[in-house]
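Practice problem: predict the structure.
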Amino acid sequence: MAKPRLKEPKTRTHSASVIFFSVLLILIQGVLYLSDKGIIQIPAFLNRILINVSVVIATLFITSLLIRLTIKRLTKLFDEPEERIFYSKIFSWTLYGFGLFVILHYFGVSLGNITIFLGLIATGLAFAVRDVLLSFFGWMILLNKKPFRIGDHIRIGDDVGKVIHIGTFYVLLDNTPELPQDFIRVPNRLFLEKSISNLGSTTYQERITFQMVNIPENTTAIIKDMKGEIGTLTQKSENVLLQLDMVNEKLLLKVEYSVSFDKQKEKRSEVIQLLFKTFKDNLLIPKV
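Answer:
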């Protein structure tokens, strides 16, 4: 499966629904017409079932057609792709919900009974599909609060990647641009539970930490030289930070630098090699 590239809300699904419901409606109406003219004979109970089914399909057909004709105009009212996604889905669900109300009313279900019925369904679903509902609410928050947008690179937990799709129940992250069929699915509920770091859309602030056993001689001069070499490697010398720190009684060497996302892994490897070569007698190298 290729990585999806979402540009704007698609209308192909609605077009397929319109065609599907229209074909079914034509077939059922054709059978009813032939039965009414006496060309074919069908039992009375089956005739009644076909009439009821035709009402249901006609309602769904009108709803799908209305969505198909209006969805593009609706999305043009919003500039941001996230807003188009959110409001187009809310609009579609609202119209289908109204269509469902019309169908239930046709079958004699009163407004009070519909309210009670929907309440029971909502209560049962809340317990049965808690994670799904959390992902749905997470999706609404992501599209309204906009902690990140499509095209941004983010970090959530241990996952880092470029946002290529904000779905109703999950977000797709592309962490391997060189592999067109590989991406990460992050359930939207995790964005309610974990902190999110928006790393931007063009550059990435890389952080690497080493534990040291001692402080080398001429530390100031060495750090100054290392900053220059790391800046040369990354071609962003103004954002290089190299410093010693003490955390939990451990001596640490912290490195920060900016790098373009497409070269992040390559430059990380080069920087690690450079630092190990320079501080090989001072770093605590874990045993493999």
